[in-house]
Design a protein that fits this description.
heterotrimer; A alpha/beta (239); B alpha/beta (265); C alpha/beta (304); B: 265 residues; alpha/beta; Rossmann fold; six-stranded mixed β-sheet; three-stranded antiparallel β-sheet; C: Rossmann fold; 8 helices; globular
Chain lengths: 239, 265, 304
């Protein structure tokens, strides 16, 4: 299998200078993710699941270790890659799905969803058409497409958010509890879309409150609870 | 301690803007000390810091209004070369008129308050040599429209306009010649919160539609968070930290940045 | 050899009123201003027995240029016989012994306020214009140091902006007299408060024009055969005053710049502004012979 990500002894902690305190998050995490593989992160609250995702996305700076990413430009260590390279990869190869939509006033739902395509160089009309299709898939009613999501309910906002985050097939996708506040239909659409991306070869790392939603997608589980071996791999686990 | 970052490997183009090792003193005060900065084509660089941190001085240097004692400044554009700090007055004026747009916090600095709004915008084109009235009028109208300025007030003098509208006129003037670089010095400070949001939204749209390179200076982290791709934190004339915007806000490293981010409401 | 053979005998006054060093300075500054057309040259404006602002700049230039053979004509708003014109003419004749004339064609040197004669000037003639405000940038840049930098950089955006503003506010360019004009494609100058009617006469003219501001101590020139282009937008043509169709009530001449004379019933009558042209027309009409020369305007139109 083609490797997409090789995480090697990754360590993250926070130094809070005003408290003169160092707070460790996780230490010496190592595992790999292959193309089309779905890895579930598991662990008690505070084990550092979300922190790990954000570190991989480089919203957090790791203290040590390596995040080797097999980009289409070659192997690059995300732990040390230049900001501009990370920004470029985020536009083209690495996605991050959160449970919150950062809606902006006076930007329509379809424009928000089309944005990643526009940044990737799509023509405005083609991007908008693809965006409408994605919104339809996630069950956003057509009369809302041109409306501003700032006024939407939490559930509708999340659908827009998912449509946006998943519209561009990426090499690596981080999922941070995307199913929270979703109705059953939308959850179904999400799982379907993830399945589709997985088949296209997207490597995924996810944190889910209720992993049952995505049970059949999971290839491996990485447990971050400190007394477990962090690289533990289980193919079939009773959840 | 976190890891030192590598040089760019994927993005092989040179940054559009590069400022290297600039220092500037006013009498005994060292306003800017050995500061370097860069911004890539289409990127929004945010510079934060409290008043007196040297961020506005740095921006004025980028607009060639201030020339530092040391350091270099390059713009990677066709027919622009060399250290721009060494240009003579004439070349500097032409470069600023055609390649750089600026929006000041104080509209009095950027606008002729008693001339018409459209005239303020047209002046940029006149400086660049446009001599057709119809073209001037058309271009001014388009730029004001892009800045979401109400066109029924096209010829109203800025002195009769609200603060938010004045900033839109400044913005229209700045973008009228499609500059490669747009500099923003506290563009929304002093405006009502709701007006501020609208002006920021206009900036964001412009940035996305035109892929314009922007440098925005503000002490308001909200403004920077809304617009910037990358953030540079300045304090007492020095850069204390730079990073991707989300990293600076979520995982600030320097004690000063942590203080700044945590002090935000 | 003694000192008395080397010096001139004592005189009550230098020739042409101004002393030698004053005239030398003016000559130098005139040469400079001819060398850089339209560029304002500072000079030490001397005292003459006339108040500043009444044509002292023009007078100093005339006094410097004349010799006993120079035939001098002085006009004020087109008229040779106004008090001011008559006084200056008499003063020059008295201190320099020059012959005087009212005929444009006969004159070697014409000092004028606010007009250029209607008859075409020749290569051997000099026109001296009195200038109250030599700085065309003053309305847009009150700081004269910055204005000088703007001239140096040919930074005339603000001048154009002024025209833009006038069209936006009034639908047309409101600038009447002193219409800013680009000389030799480089310096913008004010042609002194001549009407728009007269500005095209300066363009590629055969004669030398020297413009001098005594109070502001600035001198500038339009050498012969030099481009003088009024600032206009490419799509808003330059317009002169609509006088082409007017007829002078006294001389009957048509197609020249007129003075408007309001009448009691609210209407106006018109008299030709170039008084000597009117006189010549009347003479021709009365059968005293044709003395009129060729004019710049033909049938009320300036040929392109």
């Amino acid at each position: 299998m083609t490797q997409v990500l090789e995480i090697d002894r990754l360590t993250k902690g926070f130094s809070l200078h005003h408290l003169e305190k160092d707070i460790p998050a996780f230490e010496n995490i190592s595992f790999t993710v292959a193309a089309g593989e779905f890895v579930l992160l598991k662990g008690a609250n505070g084990a550092g699941k979300s922190t790990l995702l954000r570190t991989l996305y480089r919203s957090y700076l790791p203290l040590s270790g390596k995040i080797r990413f097999h980009s289409s430009y070659g192997l690059i260590d995300l732990a040390r890659a230049a900001d501009v390279d990370v920004a470029h990869l985020r536009r083209t190869e690495i996605g991050f799905v959160t449970q919150f939509l950062t809606a902006r006033p006076r930007v329509s739902a379809e424009a928000i969803v089309a944005e990643p395509l526009r940044l990737a160089g799509w023509e405005p009309e083609a991007a908008l058409n693809a965006a409408r299709k994605a919104l339809e898939t996630f069950g956003v009613k057509p009369d809302l497409w041109a409306a501003y999501p700032t006024t939407f309910s939490g559930g509708e906002q999340q659908k827009v958010n998912l449509a946006r985050a998943l519209i561009l097939p990426q090499k690596l996708l981080m999922l941070d509890e995307p199913t929270a506040s979703l109705d059953a239909n939308a959850r179904g659409a999400l799982v379907e879309r993830l399945q589709e991306l997985k088949e296209q070869g997207t490597a995924m790392i996810g944190v889910f409150h209720h992993p049952d939603d995505v049970l059949h997608l999971i290839d491996r589980i990485v447990d971050l609870t400190p007394d477990h071996t962090p690289t533990e791999e289980r193919d079939d686990v009773a959840l | 301690m976190t890891l030192a970052l590598d040089a760019p490997r994927i993005v092989e183009t040179r940054p559009l803007l590069e400022v290297h090792g600039v220092s500037k003193s006013y009498k005994s005060i060292r306003a800017v000390r050995n500061v370097s900065a860069h911004a890539y084509q289409g990127e929004v660089l945010g510079i934060v810091g409290e008043s007196g941190s040297g961020k506005s001085t740095l921006l004025r240097m980028m607009n060639l209004e201030e020339i530092p004692e040391t350091g270099s400044y390059t713009l990677d554009l066709p027919d622009v070369s060399g250290n721009l700090f060494e240009l003579d007055r004439f070349a500097r004026r032409m470069l600023c008129a055609t390649k750089i747009g600026i929006v000041y916090q104080n509209p009095h600095l950027g606008l002729l308050m008693k001339h018409s709004s459209s005239g303020n915008v047209a002046e940029r084109l006149l400086v660049a040599g446009e001599r057709s009235f119809a073209t001037l009028r058309q271009a001014a109208t388009e730029a004001l429209d892009a800045s979401e300025f109400p066109l029924d007030r096209l010829d109203a003098p800025p002195i009769e306009l609200s603060g938010g509208m004045q900033q839109r006129v400044q913005l229209a003037k700045a973008i009228a010649l499609e500059p490669a670089l747009l500099l923003l010095d506290e563009p929304t400070t002093g405006l009502d919160v709701s007006v501020q949001a609208l002006v920021l939204d206009t900036l964001k749209r412009l940035q996305q539609d035109r892929q314009i390179t922007m440098v925005i200076v503000s002490h308001d982290l909200g403004v920077i968070r809304t617009l910037a791709d990358r953030v540079m934190v300045m304090r007492r004339g020095e850069v204390v930290e730079t990073g991707l915007a989300d990293q600076i806000f979520q995982d600030p490293q320097h004690p000063y940045t942590q203080q700044l981010v945590h002090a935000k409401l | 050899m003694s000192l008395s053979t080397l010096t001139k005998p004592w005189e009550a006054m230098s020739y042409g009123f101004l002393d030698g060093s004053a005239k030398r300075e003016l000559r130098r500054k005139m040469l400079k201003s001819v060398a850089v057309p339209g560029c304002q040259m500072p000079y030490a404006s001397r005292e003459v027995p006339m108040a500043r602002g009444w044509g002292t700049g023009g007078l100093q230039v005339s006094l410097t240029l004349v010799n006993p053979q120079t035939r001098v004509k002085v006009i004020d708003q087109g008229a040779d016989d106004s008090v001011n014109a008559a006084s200056i003419r008499r003063f020059i004749a008295r201190v320099a012994g020059t012959p005087t004339t009212m005929d444009t064609l006969e004159a070697d040197l014409i000092q004028s306020r606010h007009r250029i004669p209607e008859e075409i000037l020749r290569e051997d003639q000099i026109l001296v214009l009195q200038v109250p405000n030599p700085e065309p940038l003053r309305p847009v840049q009150p700081n004269m140091s910055i204005a000088r930098q703007m001239h140096a950089d040919a930074d005339y955006g603000r001048m154009w902006l002024q025209l833009y503003e006038q069209i936006v506010r009034s639908g047309r360019v409101m600038q009447g007299a002193s219409y800013p004009s680009l000389v030799h494609g480089r310096h913008v100058m004010t042609p002194s408060p001549i009407p728009r009617w007269d500005v095209p006469k300066l363009h590629m003219a055969k004669h030398l024009t020297i413009l001098s501001a005594g109070r502001e101590k600035r001198i500038f020139a339009v050498p012969p055969y030099t481009r003088v282009e009024p600032l206009v937008f490419s799509d808003v043509p330059y317009k002169v005053e609509e006088h082409g169709h007017l007829t002078c009530t006294r001389s009957g001449t048509t197609g020249f710049f007129m003075n408007e004379i309001p009448r009691d019933d609210g209407t106006s009558s018109f008299e030709v502004s170039d008084s000597e042209w009117g006189v010549k027309t009347i003479r021709a009409r009365d059968g005293d012979g044709e003395s009129r020369g060729e004019t710049w305007y033909k049938n009320g139109e300036m040929p392109q």
